[in-house]
């Protein structure tokens, strides 16, 4: 109780200082930020840190990163640190159960509702997103972006030389596959294990549609039913057009994209951090150096996820963290970060404040976000709890080792039951 009261007082004082605008020069000491945005994934975060340093010259930022796409390695390190009493001041976490079902239920995160009120943020973020950050009436992190998971990337020159149209449906993709293979090009490149799961969620969306996908999480789609069997059968056909049996396991998501850029592969399905990589790191122009389309069968559907940062109750530098979070949610922070990251801002006021910062891809993503059907990503934390996400790897192993769509679908039903992630009818 005493600890909670002390934390409340620190937060109240720090918030008063931050919102009064005089805190910046007064802040000192350290701020440790933990994420998986290392190397090629780093520039957007580094832009935010630069801005933070300008505003808070006396704070030393420690940018702690653990390499590994989609946080596969970082989450394990974070768990060890959090449980070992060594919480970073702020860490990257996907909006959804990855935040609320893991750290918030365990009482490890500070309620940031007061910060939201002070900053005028209650209307600045989409309601769907705020829902994923909220637990029992409190708001527990600040979102930096909205990423799209279901994008298919290609090199316009390769597609042109193959004389094919960009497939809009799974059937069109499968029909184009043999001709692409005959040309000596991999139709669809995948990388290490999580990128195969990432492909699966787009195939599932293409087969089930937005309603059917959402139905998995409400109990309306039978996880062991004929439709789910169809998902795995189609997934198998798509994988037969890929490099899975060859070099996939050794490729990071960036290396898979490199193969598309080099013309060795025709398509790759990846979230739009790939747009960030191709524009910011490779210097390519959207629509010229690389092309993009919704994944086959999912035109008009935006599968989304959001990266956010919060304040662990045990963080050593609470006031510095609140200044960091204030920057993250602000229009300036969002506009420093998102144009480099390949994501659109979570703050609804950001694009209009600086539209020129957003390239053709990002403009199209922003238009789709506001007009498409929205569905949550499984692989990136928005759709299901962590238990389901972890167990889903076993479903994938069962499918990849047995090749049986029926066995995979019944394993899906089993993990639905065990995790309670698939709605009340399970
Ligand atoms: C996602 C994350 C993105 C990007 C990607 C690849 O989970 O939300 O921001 O980092 O992983 O590592």
Plain-language structure description:
The relative contact order is 0.17. The strands form four sheets. Strands 2-1-3-13-6 form a five-stranded mixed beta sheet, sandwiched between helices. The chain has a four-stranded mixed beta sheet with strand order 9-10-8-11. It has a three-stranded mixed beta sheet with strand order 7-12-14, with helices on both faces. The chain is globular. The chain is of the alpha/beta class. The protein contains 19 helices and 14 strands. The chain has two domains: about 210 residues, 3-Layer(aba) Sandwich (D-Maltodextrin-Binding Protein, domain 2), CATH 3.40.190.10; about 200 residues, D-Maltodextrin-Binding Protein, domain 2 (3-Layer(aba) Sandwich). The site of beta-D-galactopyranose (GAL) has 14 residues, from loops.
Strand order of the largest sheet: 2-1-3-13-6
Distinct compounds present: beta-D-galactopyranose
Helix tally equals: 19
CATH class of the largest domain: Alpha Beta
Largest sheet: 5 strands, mixed
Short structural summary:
The chain is α/β, with parallel strands linked by helices and 426 residues long. It has helices at residues 2-20, 23-26, 43-55, 74-83, 97-104, 113-119, 127-133, 156-162, 170-182, 193-218, 226-239, 253-261, 273-281, 318-329, 331-341, 350-353, 360-371, 386-402, 405-419, and strands spanning 29-35, 59-65, 90-94, 134-135, 138-139, 142-143, 147-148, 151-154, 186-188, 265-270, 291-294, 301-305, 307-309, 373-376. Strands 2-1-3-13-6 form a 5-stranded mixed beta sheet, with helices on both faces.
